[in-house]
Design goal:
The structure holds 2 protein chains of 2 kinds. By secondary structure, chain A is mainly alpha-helical. Chain A folds into 2 domains: 30 residues, no CATH class; 181 residues, Four Helix Bundle (Hemerythrin (Met), subunit A) (Up-down Bundle). Chain A contains 5 helices and no strands. Among the domains of chain B are: 229 residues, Cytochrome C Oxidase, Chain A; 63 residues, no CATH class. The longest helix of chain B has 35 residues. Classes of the chains: A mainly alpha, B mainly alpha. At the A-B interface, helix 1 and helix 4 of A face helix 7, helix 8 and helix 9 of B.
């Protein structure tokens, strides 16, 4: 181990911080000779944006696991009981699609407003009403799902009555739990907007998550409709 | 040039004891908390292994105090067969999850990844804090299973159905014990997902000016690749645990087949798929073993380079090979299921990528060996344990070539050959990586040096001891010694008992060596020789450019600017034999991209 401290290196005081001794990879590429005119400014995306994609990747893997479990379990089963999906699910689908539309409207209005106020919303006139509508539609969706579960249960088809019902409940409850997370995100966005501390990246990330919940639900509905 | 200051996480230094040391959002504190958890888990797991080994080598030996641990598991201080299996299950679960996944990745990664990338902290510090406490709660839930009625589950860390799904009728611990196991692991998955989220986002978005991806040290690449695997693998394990819990508490039949008769009772389940559990588990399980080893690969590569005073033969190829290991790890999982009854054609489909995955592993090993050849390696505890990692990885890895082939695996599956393979290649190698990282980074984390003499004694004893334990396992396996047996009463097993006695003595010897490490760690923390400066190993990466220990925001007032690739050692014309990444000195290096 070191017991002496070596001489400090010779520092080139004229050296610009932007000039590396090598190109350093594609993102920070500087041509040899230090000609900076050809360098585009590659900024990384905000962490919220990368973070939400990472989270969506994990959620996708989880539902892929549930899907493969359903396919394998159905493939080997002689006891699979096919049933008709409760009609309220189709109405709920329209609700969640509508909520994505209202969220996009909200996002565009807030983004336009933010564009004026340099990434920070100021004043009490921010266009939050479409966010409230989205929140309401989301809550209606969860209520509709609850209605479907109660309806099936009252007909005697509980979680353990047959494996097809087991998968129905597992998939729809898992999705609803993630929708709750999305609702929490929307409440957080509304809260930050009301306090004028909302970042554009937070809004975009929350919107991306919510749209993914819609896409995921459409996928699950198709899967359940085909398989159950 | 990228300036990440607009994304920078600015949080002021905490003032209260609770916010500083308990519920801290500082990645350095979180890293130390993970290390402490892994240390505690390792001691528990090692203690369990001692109990197991004493029983295996000396079957009727009454271990003093054992009946205090379990009401019914050890009458007269001699463990019952079921209790052996319960200890074995907890040993495996604790070691794989709470030691091998936690220490090299979560502990060192949390402490050093933001510093090595040049960031003030992880981008989601509250999620980071949650990830530790969630993991800690998972550990408590797991250990709590020792305290419930019939004790912890006995189905092995792999928890194969139907044994894991049929409830109390399956034996002690198979009711509440399994539910606690599955709950604990489900909670652990959440902690891992939150951690992986931070690691990936830090690597991609929080690098300082001049730090391109290829300028990241190999440790950072190891953690990044591991976090991608962790994100995708643990996201599959959690649904599997949820389905297992539902089979227990909700009467569903995901994993239990119809008309199963246990203890003269026909179980009420219908039509479940027992193989489904294995598919779900091993889809997670094989990436998991790479999650355990890839951070160690990054850590020992980093340490070896620093001590060789020259970079590896190829920085890029090492990174690409680690990435290839990660990608291929999803395609090989069925090699754990060759004898499970799945279609034999599937065995071919899994055997081929398993043999292919030996290619990047071999490339990595050859890069290490080729780089070491002709180098003047500085010998210290960290470099010795790094060499030990290479040795264990090779020794343990070559037995994998045999197990990869179904025709041979038919003979060796569920024997001690497999146990020897994974203990060497994953268990011991990763532990050596943890030790290497500890000796190497202790000065940066604490400002003190660990005792070198004790470190070398720890290495020699551990190295010899580990080989004495696990090499004979291969012989036992070829001789037909079945794993997960608590006693050897068959004709062909009785002659192997002396080998087991030898292994038990070696295990206790090796365990004692770890106590030397524990003493060194604690003593050095408070009374160790002060580190001579901020960079005692003359390293080049960013952690050595900051104060010791690093301040709250890692770099003080000025965020670092990176000018060089990592590992600029022994550069001709440079003023010193190492050029730090933050040095603006102009050098002519063949390794840096032009």
């Amino acid at each position: 181990m070191a017991t002496t401290v070596p001489e400090p290196p010779k520092i080139d005081q004229d050296r610009l911080p932007t000039q590396g001794s090598g190109n350093g990879g594609w993102r920070n590429k500087i041509p040899a000779g230090g000609d900076l005119r050809r360098v585009k400014d590659h900024s990384s995306p905000p962490p919220a944006s990368t973070g939400i994609w990472v989270g969506l990747a994990a959620i996708t893997m989880s539902f892929a696991a549930f899907t493969s479990a359903l396919i394998v379990r159905q493939g080997g089963a002689s006891d699979w009981h096919h049933f008709t999906l409760p009609p309220v699910l189709y109405f709920n689908t329209l609700l969640i699609i509508a909520s994505s539309i209202t969220l996009e409207v909200a996002r565009k209005r807030i983004a336009a407003y933010m564009g004026v106020a340099k990434d920070r919303v100021t004043g009490a006139t921010a266009p939050a009403q479409w966010l409230y509508i989205t929140l309401f539609l989301g809550l209606l969706f969860v209520a509709g799902q609850t209605f479907a579960w109660v309806q099936l249960k009252s007909q005697g088809f509980g979680l353990a009555s047959n494996v097809s019902y087991s998968f129905f409940y597992v998939l729809t409850v898992a999705h609803a739990l993630h929708v709750f997370g999305g609702l929490g995100g929307l409440v957080r966005v509304i809260g930050k907007m009301n306090k004028s501390i909302l970042r554009r990246s937070t809004l975009d990330a929350t919107s991306r998550y919510w749209h993914f919940m819609g896409v995921l639900w459409v996928y699950l509905l198709l899967l359940l409709w085909m398989k159950l | 040039m990228h300036d990440m200051s607009e994304h920078a996480v600015h949080h002021g230094a905490p003032t209260s004891f609770i916010r500083k040391h308990v519920f801290s959002i500082d990645h350095k504190v979180i890293g130390k908390q993970y290390y402490a958890l892994a240390l505690l888990a390792a001691l528990v797991g090692m203690f369990l292994s001692w109990l197991m080994r004493i029983h295996l080598g000396f079957a009727n030996f009454a271990i003093p105090g054992l009946s205090l641990l379990s009401k019914n598991g050890a009458p007269g201080n001699v463990m019952t067969p079921e209790y052996y299996l319960q200890l074995m299950t907890m040993h495996g679960t604790i070691m794989v999850f709470f030691v091998l996944t936690t220490a090299p990745f979560a502990a060192f990664g949390n402490f050093f990844l933001p510093i090595q990338t040049g960031a003030e902290d992880m981008p989601f510090p509250h999620f980071n804090m949650m990830s530790f406490w969630v993991t800690f709660v998972g550990f408590l839930v797991l250990v709590a299973s020792f305290l419930v009625g019939t004790g912890p589950t006995l189905g092995g860390w792999t928890q194969y159905a139907p044994l894991s799904a049929i409830g109390d009728v399956g034996g002690p611990g198979q009711g509440l014990g399994v539910v606690l196991w599955a709950t604990s692991i489900g909670i652990f998955c959440i902690g891992q997902l939150l951690g992986s989220l931070n690691f990936i986002t830090t690597t991609l978005d929080m690098r300082c000016k001049g730090m391109s991806l290829m300028r990241l040290p190999l440790t950072a690449w190891g953690w990044f690749i591991t976090s991608v695997m962790g994100l995708t693998a643990f996201a599959v394990l959690m649904p599997a645990c949820i389905l297992l819990i539902l089979d227990h508490v909700a009467g569903t039949s995901f994993f239990v087949a119809s008309n199963l008769v246990i203890n003269d009772q026909v179980l009420p389940h219908s039509g479940g798929s027992t193989l489904l559990w294995q598919h779900l588990f091993w889809f997670f399980g094989h990436p998991e073993v790479y999650i355990a080893i890839v951070p160690g690969m990054g850590i020992i590569s980093h340490i070896l380079i620093t001590n060789m005073r020259k970079p590896m033969l190829s920085h890029r190829v090492l990174i690409y090979s680690m990435g290839a290991l990660a990608a291929l790890s999803y395609m090989v999982y069925g090699h754990h299921m060759f004898v499970s009854g799945m279609n034999p054609v599937s065995s071919l489909a899994f055997s081929f990528p398993t043999l292919v995955i030996t290619i990047p592993s071999t490339i990595i090993v050859l890069i290490w060996l080729g780089s070491l050849y002709g180098s003047k390696l500085r010998i210290n505890s960290a470099s010795l344990f790094s060499l030990g990692f290479v040795s264990m990885f090779i020794s343990g890895g070559v037995s994998g070539f045999f197990l990869a082939q179904p025709s041979i695996d038919i003979m060796l599956h569920a024997t001690y050959f497999v146990v020897g393979h994974f203990h060497l290649v994953m268990g011991v190698a990763a532990m050596f990586g943890i030790f290497a990282g500890t000796y190497f980074w202790f000065p940066k984390m604490t400002g003190r040096m660990m005792n070198e003499t004790l470190g070398k004694v720890h290495f020699v004893m551990s190295f010899i001891g580990a080989y004495c334990i696990f090499m004979p396992f291969h012989y036992l396996g070829i001789a037909g010694n079945v794993r997960r047996y608590q006693a050897f009463t068959d004709d062909y097993l009785i002659p192997l008992i002396p080998v087991h006695k030898f292994i038990t003595i070696a295990a206790l010897f090796t365990g004692f060596a770890q106590l030397i490490f524990l003493y060194n760690l604690i003593h050095s923390r408070f009374k160790g020789e002060l580190a001579p400066n901020d960079n005692p190993w003359e390293g080049t990466s960013l952690e050595w450019s900051t104060a010791t220990p690093p301040p709250h925001n890692n770099f003080g007032d000025k965020m670092p600017v990176v000018y060089h690739d990592p590992y600029q050692y022994s550069i001709e014309g440079a003023s010193t034999d190492y050029v730090m990444q933050t040095s603006p000195e102009k050098i002519n290096s063949p390794d840096e991209e032009k």
